[in-house]
User: Which sequence fits this backbone?
């Protein structure tokens, strides 16, 4: 039973602020809404936020208007109402409409408040909770304890001492077999259930206890494992649900499976009778009964659906009232309480639409009422046309079974008279969530049906094997128990993976449980009040201590990573690794220890490489620590002090100046000429001007001009601000959380290799089973057939595939390294070869990340500037393309040089700047006319007015110390601001009054440059008189003389346009993703060929307003995403992947790292990229050339071509081995090749030749065609070559025997033909899909050497005496090689025309064309 107890309440109280745990709030959004609605109306409460995710409330109040004691009374009354609603049987509305509830609460509080015995805040000390006092539910059940303990103890015992005599005695087996038959055959089980009802016995308990006891006595570990799983599920379901969830005798086995159980019962009884009559052996009949037993599917089906219910409810999936996952899979009819629940204002409701899309075609839909007179005839037509659903009346044909019907209503009221007390029911608002559960239920139903098919195959094959006593009854029972356990395990894995608690997508709004408010939209006073701080005095020690408890330290911490050993062991879960391990085991079991050990070494090396790749993300997150400064200056307790930055808390007042790195997310309250480099977040290198003005709530991150973010740094000015977020709750912390997400997606290569391996694994197992059964039926000994089938299975498994792929990828990595591209992840190149989209950051990737002046305009002339970046090589040309002298130009360049605090410098042969990028562009421009600081060192700066956002200008006073006469005021800034202070302009070296027409002309030129996405600066000056020692400079901005303007841009890299064009030719669409302005991005995109004007440009703000579905619809028509945040970039990459694209993401900044990590291939720039980006990326370009990406695509496609050839070589040889062995055994012929020859053949033909094909060092041409590793064309080649070689080898074997040759000679001929054929085909595969002729590939010394080694090995095994005995061969006469070489050669020569003939018989399908901008 349950009882109500009390526990300490989680509460934090600060002056005017309280955060506390509220009874009933957790996971209940309705309670959160009611609480906020009620308490926001109470006088004195400033703000209230109820968080249903954490179950806590944050409440701000005015202590002068309402005391904490009165507030606690309101909260107590609210909780009492909740408590009564949950635990009393009275029919009441509980929490009423908030106006009525507020009135009732006020009355009660007023009465209590007058009482003198009020106990202050003591009410907050405890909170009621429901405590389960039933010890049996908490204690591990005895059957579970016995089965798990028995499994462990008996497993250890058998490992060291084997099974006991009692366990080997047949009696326990007979008893367990009887129980298995009784519980598996439906008619026997129903008979026992009737007996149970008459005798009032607990049959389940009796049979369960008997099964457990017999399993323990027989020491049957497989049965014990199955019992443990079932017992554990039942125990956890009871714990989780605490009620009987099998409502109204819920069924969990579908009629189809029940029908199959009945059919197999009849079949099993009949087959057992026939077997007994023929063999006269009861063990044969018992074996047939056990083999035909449908128990595996019946047991696993019931377990699967119960497990699904348990996991779904635990994960809080949406399920109907009185319903289950099984019921959702069986729904045949949906009844709506009213037609208005389907249609609203003439349209299908969104909630209903989502659910209808998941229903099976033909599902019936009906309504009970039609209060709003919906057109039912039109509705019926629409439902059938759009969803293939049948709108019908409730009549005799309507489904009656409760699990086949779902009832949909506006509001569920749990009364016994209501329809919801019987049928599974759901509220209309929950239908979209139910649609997801419905989809999962249908997928699970497919799994159950697959299990049923697998069981039916076993029932038939098991019966065939058991009837003639080829396999004993205990072994049949072991197989059946193993199948049951396998199905249980599969169901457990599927439900936990697909129905378990989902890994939440990281949403920025969450940031843990700390509230995230639009700090940038709050004015300074409101912010200071909200955070309970003081501008002058800061926080007190008590506030700091409380805040540290609430928010923690200001540290960037990632999720704790598992130990490297755990990561290493996890590598062995991959399917190809399992194949390699299985093959290694089979090789060792069949006597080939060396082969098994070699494959084990390869297995361990592959796992080591995978571990290293996985753990690189840790280094990336650790590198993020560089963005948090060690110390910072704060105001606390009225004192200015320096503290460690990790001790900052929200509410701290922080002082910053130029050169400081921002230690947390800060809202400015004072700013003097502040500029901040935000490239770590936005990726844009230009400093951003900051101020204290409030901005709109929906402004993008890069436009929040009153915020400073952790990891950015001040390049100019001084600032004072309030800390609003710290540690993992900051924007930089959010980046860390994105980087810390698990990488669980498979690469395209892994998916395809797994698919190929699974296909051939199944084929190998089927071939091995067929050969085994056929051999037994033909009278071969069991030992011989076990060895042969194991060897054949081992040979058919493409165990060389993982190793071949690893070698091919490694060779490609070395080739890319020569081209100065570092590939950090083994499969990255192959994935890049498949890429359909390249998402590229603009700044530093497509552009140089170096501002460059391109245009100069004076009143009477215009100049074009050549050269890019900070390299001072270039020319300033007039409109005729000539270098002309101009006094205005010279004056402009001198102003630009002297009115600047940035220097141009050369380091390690590379030009760069120290200072502001905009000023760097101007200094570089001056250097192109040899106006350098070195030849202007006689000019002395007397005064400076720094840039500020109000004036929009920077002004200096400079004097030439050579003549002591030339003294000028020099200004630069926005053209509009400069013109406001100008009264004259200069033309041809002379001064003229600035008229309205001239001013309009200048502004038009400014607008023209701006439309070209140029950043424009104007220049002006005024001569002044200055006396030595004078320090007072007044009215500097008066009567300035306008000189001209410059237009600058971050230019594209010179080779980018060519690379973009080449990418388009390869069928790859480039997309620009940038934090820059859309106009600037579009100008660059048009210049380099990414966008031609027909595609869309989407901003981050527009992206925020789109749903995932809307984005998926338009994303293929977008060429530019501008003004985006790191999270936007991540969302874009994920959406493209959902659309089926293989995405490569390039970038250089920290802001690119999450998207780079998520992309199929992440590419970092080596020169401009941050260390975080490089650690995250799969590939690093040492020279930052976009063309290197295109080279990587070609290299990847070449690797795919090489792997394709190696795969074809492997599979065609394996197929030939399967054909010759299986056909010979089925036809009753002797084995053409013995197990030792099969394994030797794999070594000679799969090892060196396939590896050389994979590396293909002699091929100097690059593949540009996109193709798959395996497709229909390859499989046609494989089948053709395999059939020709297998049939030819078998024909020579049969002819040799018919010609009187010994069996050993015939086997040697077959063996030599298979090996020679595969070696000849290696040459043929080498030439496939290439224009090379025999002279080209014959020069490939690697291929010739590898094949030479294999040929010599083949001849050695045949003609060297000691090896004859080992491999079962004999020396062949020279004449015997003629037919061997003829068959071997023809299998390669004839394969091509035959395969082409098959292709001609099929209609050609045009390859899909990629639509690109």
Assistant:
């Amino acid at each position: 039973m349950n009882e109500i107890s009390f526990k300490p309440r989680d509460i934090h109280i600060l002056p005017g602020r309280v955060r506390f745990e509220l009874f009933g709030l957790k996971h209940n959004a309705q309670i959160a809404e009611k609480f906020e609605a009620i308490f926001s109306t109470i006088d004195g409460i400033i703000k209230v936020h109820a968080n249903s995710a954490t179950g806590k409330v944050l409440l701000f109040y005015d202590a002068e208007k309402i005391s904490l004691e009165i507030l606690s009374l309101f909260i107590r009354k609210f909780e009492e109402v909740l408590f009564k609603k949950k635990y009393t049987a009275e029919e009441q509305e509980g929490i009423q409409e908030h106006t009525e509830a507020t009135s009732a609460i006020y009355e009660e509080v007023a009465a209590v408040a007058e009482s003198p015995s009020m106990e202050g805040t003591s009410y907050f000390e405890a909170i009621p909770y429901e405590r389960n006092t039933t010890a049996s539910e908490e204690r591990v059940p005895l059957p579970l304890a016995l089965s798990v303990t028995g499994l462990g103890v008996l497993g250890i015992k058998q490992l060291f001492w084997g099974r006991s005599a009692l366990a080997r005695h047949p009696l326990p087996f007979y008893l367990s077999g009887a129980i298995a038959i009784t519980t598996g055959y439906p008619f026997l089980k129903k008979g026992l259930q009737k007996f149970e009802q008459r005798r009032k016995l607990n049959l389940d308990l009796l049979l369960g206890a008997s099964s457990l006891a017999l399993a323990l006595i027989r020491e049957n570990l497989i049965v014990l494992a199955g019992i443990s799983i079932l017992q554990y599920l039942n125990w956890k379901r009871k714990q989780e649900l605490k009620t009987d969830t099998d409502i109204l005798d819920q069924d969990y086995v579908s009629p189809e499976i029940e029908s199959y159980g009945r059919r197999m019962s009849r079949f099993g009884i009949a087959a057992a009778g026939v077997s007994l009559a023929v063999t006269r052996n009861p063990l044969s009949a018992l074996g047939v009964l056990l083999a035909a037993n449908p128990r595996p599917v019946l047991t696993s089906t019931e377990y699967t659906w119960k497990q699904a219910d348990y996991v779904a409810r635990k994960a809080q999936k949406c399920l109907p009232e009185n319903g289950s996952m099984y019921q959702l899979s069986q729904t045949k009819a949906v009844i709506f309480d009213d037609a208005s629940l389907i249609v609203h204002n003439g349209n299908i409701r969104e909630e209903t639409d989502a659910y209808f899309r998941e229903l099976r075609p033909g599902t019936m839909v009906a309504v009970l009422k039609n209060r709003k007179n919906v057109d039912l005839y039109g509705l019926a037509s629409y439902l059938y046309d759009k969803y293939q659903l049948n709108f019908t009346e409730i009549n005799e044909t309507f489904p009656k079974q409760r699990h086949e019907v779902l009832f949909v209503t506006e509001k569920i009221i749990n009364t016994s008279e209501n329809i919801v007390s019987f049928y599974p029911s759901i509220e209309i608002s929950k239908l979209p969530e139910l649609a997801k559960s419905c989809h999962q239920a249908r997928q699970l139903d497919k799994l159950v049906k697959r299990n049923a098919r697998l069981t039916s195959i076993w029932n038939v094959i098991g019966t065939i094997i058991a009837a003639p006593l080829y396999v004993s009854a205990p072994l049949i029972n072991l197989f059946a128990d193993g199948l049951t356990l396998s199905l249980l395990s599969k169901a457990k894995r599927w439900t936990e993976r697909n129905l378990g608690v989902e890994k939440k997508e990281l949403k920025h709004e969450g940031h843990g449980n700390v509230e995230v408010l639009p700090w940038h939209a709050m004015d300074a006073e409101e912010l200071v009040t909200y955070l309970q701080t003081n501008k002058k005095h800061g926080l007190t020690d008590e506030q700091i201590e409380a805040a540290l408890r609430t928010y923690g330290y200001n540290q960037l911490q990632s999720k704790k990573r598992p130990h490297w050993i755990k990561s290493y062991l996890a590598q062995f879960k991959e399917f190809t690794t399992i194949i390699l391990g299985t093959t290694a085991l089979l090789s060792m079991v069949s006597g080939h220890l060396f082969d098994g050990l070699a494959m084990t070494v390869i297995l361990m090396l592959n796992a080591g490489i995978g571990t290293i790749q996985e753990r690189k993300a840790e280094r990336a997150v650790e590198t993020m620590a560089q963005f948090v400064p060690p110390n910072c200056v704060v105001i606390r307790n009225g004192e200015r002090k320096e503290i460690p930055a990790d001790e900052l808390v929200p509410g701290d007042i922080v002082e910053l100046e130029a050169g400081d790195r921002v230690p947390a997310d800060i809202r400015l309250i004072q700013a003097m000429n502040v500029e901040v480099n935000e490239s770590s977040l936005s990726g844009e290198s230009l400093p951003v001007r900051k101020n204290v003005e409030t901005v709109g709530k929906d402004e993008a991150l890069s436009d929040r001009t009153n915020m400073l973010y952790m990891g950015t740094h001040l390049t100019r000015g001084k600032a004072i601000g309030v800390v609003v977020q710290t540690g993992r709750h900051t924007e930089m912390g959010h980046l860390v959380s994105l980087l810390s997400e698990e990488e669980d997606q498979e690469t395209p290569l892994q998916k395809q290799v797994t698919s190929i391996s699974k296909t051939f694994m199944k084929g190998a197992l089927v071939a091995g089973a067929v050969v085994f059964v056929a051999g037994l039926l033909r009278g071969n000994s069991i030992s011989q057939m076990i060895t042969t089938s194991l060897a054949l299975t081992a040979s058919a498994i493409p165990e060389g595939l993982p190793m071949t792929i690893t070698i091919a990828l490694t060779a490609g990595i070395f080739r890319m390294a020569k081209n100065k591209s570092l590939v950090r992840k083994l499969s990255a190149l192959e994935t890049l070869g498949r890429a359909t989209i390249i998402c590229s950051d603009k700044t530093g990737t497509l552009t140089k990340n170096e501002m460059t002046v391109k245009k100069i305009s004076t009143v009477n002339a215009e100049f074009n500037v050549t050269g890019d970046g900070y390299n001072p090589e270039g020319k300033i040309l007039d409109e005729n393309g000539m270098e002309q002298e101009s006094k205005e130009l010279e004056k402009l360049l001198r102003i630009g040089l002297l009115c600047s605090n940035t220097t141009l410098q050369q380091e390690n042969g590379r030009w760069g700047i120290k200072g502001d990028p905009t000023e760097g562009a101007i200094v570089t421009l001056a250097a192109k006319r040899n106006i350098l600081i070195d030849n202007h060192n006689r000019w002395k700066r007397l005064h400076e007015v720094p840039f500020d956002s109000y004036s929009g200008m920077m002004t200096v006073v400079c004097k030439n110390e050579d003549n002591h006469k030339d003294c000028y005021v020099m200004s630069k800034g926005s053209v509009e601001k400069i013109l406001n202070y100008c009264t004259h302009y200069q033309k041809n070296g002379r001064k003229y009054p600035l008229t309205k027409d001239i001013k309009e002309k200048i502004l038009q030129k400014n607008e023209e440059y701006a439309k070209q996405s140029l950043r424009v600066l104007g220049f002006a000056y005024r001569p002044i008189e200055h006396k030595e020692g004078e320090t007072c400079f007044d009215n500097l901005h008066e009567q300035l003389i306008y000189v001209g303007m410059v237009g600058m841009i971050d230019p594209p890299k010179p080779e980018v346009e060519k690379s973009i064009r080449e990418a388009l030719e390869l069928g790859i669409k480039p997309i620009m993703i940038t934090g820059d302005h859309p106009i600037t991005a579009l100008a660059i995109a048009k210049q380099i060929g990414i966008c031609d004007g027909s595609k869309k440009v989407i901003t981050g703000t527009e992206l925020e307003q789109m749903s995932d579905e809307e984005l998926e619809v338009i994303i293929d028509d977008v060429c530019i995403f501008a003004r985006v945040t790191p999270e936007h970039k991540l969302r874009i990459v994920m959406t493209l992947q959902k659309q089926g694209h293989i995405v490569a993401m390039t970038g250089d900044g920290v802001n690119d790292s999450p998207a780079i990590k998520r992309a199929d291939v992440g590419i970092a720039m080596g020169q401009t990229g941050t260390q975080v980006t490089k650690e995250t990326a799969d590939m690093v370009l040492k020279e930052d050339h976009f063309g290197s990406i295109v080279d990587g695509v070609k290299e990847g496609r070449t690797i795919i071509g090489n792997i394709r050839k190696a795969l074809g070589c492997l599979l065609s040889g394996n197929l030939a081995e399967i054909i010759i062995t299986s056909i010979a055994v089925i036809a009753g012929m002797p084995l053409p090749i013995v197990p030792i020859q099969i394994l030797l053949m794999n070594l000679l033909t799969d090892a060196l030749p396939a590896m050389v094909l994979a590396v293909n060092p002699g091929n100097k041409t690059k593949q540009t065609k996109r193709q798959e590793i395996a497709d229909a064309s390859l499989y046609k080649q494989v089948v053709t070559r395999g059939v020709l070689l297998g049939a030819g080898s078998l024909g020579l074997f049969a002819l040799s025997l018919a010609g009187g040759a010994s069996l050993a000679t015939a086997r040697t001929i077959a063996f030599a033909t298979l090996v020679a054929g595969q070696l000849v085909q290696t040459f043929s595969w080498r030439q496939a899909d290439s224009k090379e002729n025999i002279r080209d590939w014959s020069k490939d010394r690697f291929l010739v050497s590898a094949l030479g080694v294999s040929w010599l090995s083949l001849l050695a095994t045949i003609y060297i005496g000691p090896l004859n005995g080992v491999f079962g061969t004999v020396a062949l006469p020279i004449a015997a090689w003629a037919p061997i070489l003829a068959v071997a050669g023809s299998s390669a020569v004839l394969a091509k025309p035959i395969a082409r003939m098959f292709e001609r018989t099929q209609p050609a399908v045009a390859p899909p064309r990629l639509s690109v901008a």
About this structure: The mean pLDDT is 77.
